Amino acid sequence: MKALIFLFSLGIFAGCCTTRPYSDAITPPQLLEINQLPSVPETIYSPNFVINTEMLVGENGSVSNVKLLNSSGDKEWDSLAVASIERWKFSPARLHDKPIKLLIRRKIKVKFANPVYMNLSEILCRTFDYADSAYQALKSGEDFSKVAERYSIESSNKMKGGSLGKVDIYRYPEEIQSQLLGLSENEFTEPLSYGENYIIFKRTGK
Asked: Most exposed residue of 24, 110, 180, 185, measured as fewest CB within 10 angstroms of its CB?
């Protein structure tokens, strides 16, 4: 069994290197992918196990300066949890459409569940129009890898036809998890919101 993370209540601070009152002009970061927290020792776990965190989300969506505002009571687990959260991925916060650093607080409730692995490929597009064009091409029967090479944002996966390999779907937010769980082999999703971008997943064979 592995610990999975379910997120509640987005943070109360905004700013660059210093905090300032949260502003309606700021578009907060959106969580894109998590790195699972380490397994929680039975000595500290309870059904209501919650940690309060503070983290700095950078202009590229990376995470740094992670702090646990309440200790679990196990210093080793706290250290491993911080290292795990630092590998999370967000879309960047924006102020007047410009990426900014943002200091946020999140309350994280930890639950246990078995990982669910799928072989996945993706097409990641900057706009919905591009994603919809890719989706229409797929519906017409075009090969997924070819469509990925044509429409995907430049990335290491683009040159692999969008292949992600074997992925634990719990790395993604719950709304994406539910879409992936509904896929049979060789089926693909409609374009899904993915931070500032749009993404299409395909469940591939073994």
From this structure: 24
